[in-house]
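Troubleshooting: if your tokenizer reports a length mismatch, compare your output against this known-good record of 388 residues.
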Amino acid sequence: MQTLSQQSLSLHQRTKGKIGVSLKVPLATSEDLSLAYTPGVAEVCRQIADNPGQFNELTVGGNSVAVVTDGSAVLGLGDIGPRAAMPVMEGKAALFKKLADIDAWPICLDCREPDAVVAAVQALAPGFAGINLEDISAPRCFEIEDRLQDLGIPVMHDDQHGTAIVLLAGLLNACRVTGKRLADLRVVISGAGAAGRAIVRLLRCIEQNPETCDAVKEVVVCDSKGALHRGRADLGSVKEAILEYSNPGNRSGGLVDLLEGADVFIGVSRGGLLSAKDIRRMAPDSVVFALANPTPEILPEEAKAGGAAVVATGRSDFPNQVNNVLVFPGIFRGALDVRAPRITDKMKTAAARAIAESVPDPSPENILPAALDETVAKKVAEAVAQAS
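Known-good structure output:
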């Protein structure tokens, strides 16, 4: 019997990829050709030249997203280059179409310097209504995303914000299960990279109206050397920026020490970090998001043996999978529908709440909808469009 990896390889060998181009118009007669191409298309071009807004109404560009990578941080494989990243970008494009009817195009860039990546995206942006940045390594991904926010179309690095949004959705429902309030939680995050940075920002509801979001008051972020705190001289600009909205008590120490009395552990670092003994240090009815893939920071059965009330991972073979597919189709669908120029924190929070509300009766084994629940993208799109 073939393994999952072998089956996937066989599928790709058979299909030579997962996506293709289909036609919306007939091309069977000379009249068809005259309407779809020359000479008739010249009038369509003139209309767009005179009124650029017609681009969205008269071309595929108005419903298109570029899925852009440089192949520097692909899944758990690391820096494997742009060609090897293509299967992931194809899969992302297929999910955009399946779940949100967005025409998405995989674009793999053979460049690494932030200036070069930014220039490449700026050059291709006129043909798209949105840009989904994908699998770009930290800390470069922060600068690249920040510098592309003025394109006039939504640009989002999904490895950061998609993970953060689904995490917040799961945490909202974990609070419903445990009876705790988001604002009262003590949270410890292991991992100060792309996902960790975005998670702490969203939990603290940066740029949010306090009336619409009960921000988590205390979040401490750890890297491999322990807590990020104001006494460390080795942090660098990215980790120092995280301290602007984390660790208000300036706690120090290692990860396990910081778990003492914590309500929530969020792992976006590496597998095998914790044991059941470590989870026992946490507050009663603790919540564990062990999101490292393929090996979580702690396996669900061990976390539960340590007293965790709710456990989520990034894997599909355990309950409560934190999967970005719950976010990116719907958030771009909503942004494209209202022609939003960017994706704001308010839109991200609205997306998280829509995902959480897609589970009407959450339980310890069911705090998030299924990854391929086709109703979720529509709900997220509606919430995002309204929030924008």
